[in-house]
Amino acid sequence: MLTKVTTVLLVLLGLSGRPALAEQSATEAPPADHRFTAQLGIEATVVGFSVGPRLDLLYRLGGPGSFSNLRLTAGVLVGPEFVYLPVGLGYRAAFRPTKTVQPLVGLGTEVHLFMVAGHVFRQWGVVYLEAGSGFAVTQRVSLGAIATVDWATIGEPGPGLAARLFVGYRF
Amino acid sequence: MTFRKLSRCLLFGMLTSLLLLRGDEAQAHLPNILRPGEVFQVPDPLLSFALYGTFSHADEVFEVRLQPETPLAVPIEIMVPRQDALTNHRPLFAIVGKGLPKASATELAQLPRPLPDGMGVVLGRYEREDREILFESFSRRVLYTNGVVAYVLPAGDVRMWVWSPSGTTGKFVLGFGVEEGKQDFGNLIANWGDYAY
Fold it and tell me: B8 pLDDT exceeds 80?
């Protein structure tokens, strides 16, 4: 049993340190400098249930080695009691962009609009924190998962918790 | 400051923010679960509660008991999730206790069970056909409400009954009280399915 666990751990460690598959075959030319990343995700909110698409647009700040990104985000999530429209601006640190496993953390602010019967019924501003990881499929395409917590600081106070699966594309 | 240093500062700020986002000091209405056939005993009538229940059958009755030491004015409302399936779900509540008005024949016919000897009753009514909607910010729920009305509870043994006069089934929340209390996060997590969806 111990041997099996050790083997699994070693395989995972090996994967996490391994360059992306596509990068291995792209040794003949230096990789293009892609400053932008678009991520389309399916998000589910755990506090106040709703599900729907969310789009993130990331702009890398600094040179090719920088992990800093500016993040613009918007989504449309539908729940049994409301339609939830988040719009936000934030900072995201995305590490190891040339590796298979690409951890990320971020923080920022969002405006949340809650629509009931076609009208904006409640709106507030939140501060959010996010953490997750992307997994390289090719040099430009990745899949990933992110968890987000937030706290409404403008308007009525309240917590938020959401999870998201995404596909990302660098350009 | 170089850009790399600025990035590291931002990362440090994020980690610090995680430490500051403590929720255990949050004050709010105390949530709990109501179950048919069981009595929910209110530990402190000065605190406010949001009690979540579900009518699985039309004839179920939910009961809450509290013991004010002196007559106490308490706002009470009954809420229902604002969902299409619950548009006609309008549970009713009654306050039962000594010193409350004697029940009329009409009221007695509406009550889900006989009044205990010597006790009077006040029925919480829907004064309007259309219902107000409220947004509960801690659970991010949108709820119909019959509207908050303050009732004077007598001292001593006071009971609140909740039933479904039209025989509809579904979820409801009985909200009452004024003073917010410290949250029990173990309870919140254990019963999150009842509170949030």
Answer: no
- Alpha carbon separation from A166 to A37, A69, A150, B78, B175 (Å, rounded): 12, 17, 19, 40, 39
- CA angle (A83 as vertex; A78, A89 as ends), nearest 5: 100
pLDDT at A20: 46
pLDDT tens-digit series, residues B76-125: 999 999 998 999 999 999 999 999 999 999 999 999 999 999 999 999 87
User: How many whole angstroms separate alpha carbon B55 and alpha carbon A98?
Assistant: 55
Count CA atoms closer than 13 A to B194's CA, side-chain side: 18
Residue A155: closest CA among chain B residues belongs to which residue?
B137
User: Bridge-partner residues for B76, per DSSP?
Assistant: B149, B176
CA–CA separation, A95 and B157 (whole Å):
62
Report ipTM for this prediction. Answer: 0.74
Structure tokens at B73: 């004015």
Q: Both tokens of residue B22?
A: 């403590």
Separation CA B82–CA B129 (nearest Å): 15
Say how many CB pairs under 8 Å bridge A and B. 80
The answer to whether residue A107 neighbours chain B at the CB level (below 8 Å) is yes
Contact check, Cβ <8 Å, A45/B23: no
A75 touches chain B (CB under 8 A): no
Residues A49, A152: Cα–Cα separation, whole Å: 17
For residue range A89-120, list pLDDT tens digits in order: 999 999 998 899 999 999 999 999 999 988 88
What whole-number distance in Å separates Cα of residue B177 and Cα of residue B29? 8
**Sheet with B39-41, side-by-side order of all strands:** B39-41, B61-66, B158-163, B92-97, B120-124
pLDDT for the residue A132: 97
Cα–Cα distance, B67 to B73 (Å, whole number): 13
- Of A59, A61, A69, A81, which to mutate for an interface test with B (greatest number of B Cβ within 10 Å)? A81
Q: What is the mean pLDDT of residues A133-151?
A: 95
Residue A145: closest CA among A23, A42, A21: A42
